[in-house]
Amino acid sequence: MWGGDQPDLPEVHNNEKKKSMCSVVEVCHLPTGEWVQKPTTGDPPLGVWGYAAAVIRNEIFFFGGDCGHSYCFHNSLYSFNVDTFNWKELSPTTSHHSPMMKGYSGMIAIKVNDEDYLAVIGGDGLSSNNSPPQPGAQYSRHDVFQFCNEVHMYRLKTGEWTSPTVTGERPPPTDQFTLTSITNTTAILFGGDINDRVSNDVYTFQFTDTSVKCTKFSNPGGSVQWPKERYAHSSTNIPDSVTDRRRNSLSVWNETQTTHWIIEFGGRRGDSYLSDTRFIEIGE
After folding, report:
1. Per-residue pLDDT tens for 201-249?
2. What is the DSSP-derived secondary structure letter of residue 246?
3. What does the longest C-alpha to C-alpha distance in the chain come to?
4. Domain boundaries of the chain, sorted by first residue
5. Are 24 and 39 in contact (CB under 8 A)?
């Protein structure tokens, strides 16, 4: 676990204290529930909270995020190697190309023709001093912020950002939704803050190396049970064998083919920060 909005995190772009706090990761030993703090090498991202993250094998990728001062957003991409505990900057923050400098977007790992990509969707950032708009994307302004429904892909082999051809009904400009991988080339989006309302719509995405097809599913009403509108929530893909907090982390660990754990950490309850860990065992 890395980063997040912490009570004693300096509200500055960068200084030694902030770098020191961001140069460690928290590692949980699942059999005992014990947390251990580990040092890292290299320079960590400046977007310390509100970032998007995805995993490919032994690397965790971090996109964008908020510095924690004066609405300073980023569009940088970093990788963190869990074997060496080393940070590597793959794409720096810049206003010269998209994705826009933003936080609260969604990112997933996809694999097309045996090649790895990252896909970044939505988010919000400042309406001024930002990157050029993406053709076909929509932007919705709210005070000094703008929400977007950009869809970008990052090709790991070449280190390039691309704009796929988008077909179907893409989500409106939104942030703080959940984006969850279903297969190597498909994902599902739920909820989010859409500037003037909170959503409980569902969208699916089907990716190729150059395109993405979007499909919308709305609450049909009647007797159908459907989740309420929400944002800043968590979701995860639970195997087929298978509260009272917000902005927490949620993940699944497969211990065996028939035993799975849902792991929940932290979040906020009212005005209090939480640091407890909850384990839920799911078995056939």
Report:
1. 999 999 999 999 999 998 888 888 899 999 999 998 865 544 567 777 8
2. B
3. 56
4. 94-233, 242-284
5. yes
